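Duplicate of #3305? Posting structure anyway:
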């Protein structure tokens, strides 16, 4: 074992029976769920995920990013989209039922030392880590982020016109996430589906537009992102072109989620040369400039 590699985040993984507190169905098969698992909730950080057994009869667990944590209540929230047997079974669970949960798993986003203007970009089911990171920023630092959210299905919340001015935004782009508005955090939405008040295009195009027109110095900006691979590749390109650093959280199919099967390995460029890293325990958060996405 290389002593220079920090593996402290791997010591947080627990197996706990969680109680379903609430389940809320949203459009397009999206579901949000609140789970009570005090030991896991106490150890969560923005960017980590949990591995859930969707129902007792299904052996394979499903990885889910943590969206919000209430340590006092011992709860955490997840958001997922139904796309198979496991997630369909999970969406059918009811309040009061029990779920086996393994977690928290993975290397989180950086928790301190932020630049003055973090830009958070979430796409689809990559939205949850951005909400968690925004919550961390408002609670633990004096840094105010801008959160950009993209979706090609109806958003899992009712967009509302923003009350927060964001210099550099195209004038018609006023749709925002209500939760972030309540927190005093600016957000804007992007979609190609013609939703009212949204940027008509990819969320990464909106990010590039804001960086170019905001008047914020490039050395004050850094990007944090999670979403599908094509979006993350676009984030890499925007970050490189604009000369700003970026951390990205990868979405990969996982079997064990604890580093045993190596089924989620990706190529990372390291000072010693290319290396295969496991998204589950070596990530899911990586420096965007080091990841080879295919």
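Output from current build:
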């Amino acid at each position: 074992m290389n002593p220079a590699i920090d593996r402290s985040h791997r010591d947080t993984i627990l197996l706990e029976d969680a109680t379903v507190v609430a389940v809320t169905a949203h459009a397009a098969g999206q579901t949000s769920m609140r789970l009570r698992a005090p030991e896991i909730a106490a150890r969560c950080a923005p960017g980590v995920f949990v591995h859930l057994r969707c129902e007792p009869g299904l052996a394979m667990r499903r990885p889910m990013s943590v969206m919000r944590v209430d340590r006092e209540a011992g709860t955490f929230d997840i958001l997922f989209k139904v796309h198979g047997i496991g997630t369909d079974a999970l969406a059918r669970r009811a309040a009061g039922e029990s779920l086996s949960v393994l977690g928290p798993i993975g290397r989180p986003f950086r928790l301190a030392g932020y630049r003055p203007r973090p830009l958070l970009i979430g796409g689809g089911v990559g939205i949850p880590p951005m909400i968690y990171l925004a919550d961390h920023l408002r609670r633990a630092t004096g840094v105010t982020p801008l959160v950009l959210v993209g979706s090609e299905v109806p958003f899992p919340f009712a967009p509302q016109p923003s009350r927060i001015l964001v210099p550099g935004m195209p004038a018609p782009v006023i749709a925002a996430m209500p939760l972030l508005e309540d927190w005093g955090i600016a957000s804007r939405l992007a979609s190609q589906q013609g939703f009212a008040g949204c940027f008509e295009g990819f969320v990464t195009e909106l990010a590039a537009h804001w960086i170019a027109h905001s008047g914020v110095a490039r050395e004050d900006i850094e990007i944090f992102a999670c979403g599908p691979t094509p979006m993350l590749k676009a984030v890499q390109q925007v970050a490189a072109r604009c000369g700003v650093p970026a951390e990205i959280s990868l979405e990969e199919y996982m079997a064990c989620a604890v580093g045993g099967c190596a089924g989620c390995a990706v190529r990372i460029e390291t000072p010693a040369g290319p290396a295969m890293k496991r998204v589950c325990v070596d990530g899911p958060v990586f420096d965007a400039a080091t990841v080879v996405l295919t």
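Confirmed duplicate; merging threads. The chain has a mean pLDDT of 93. The domain at 8-105 is CATH 2.40.30.10 (Elongation Factor Tu (Ef-tu); domain 3).
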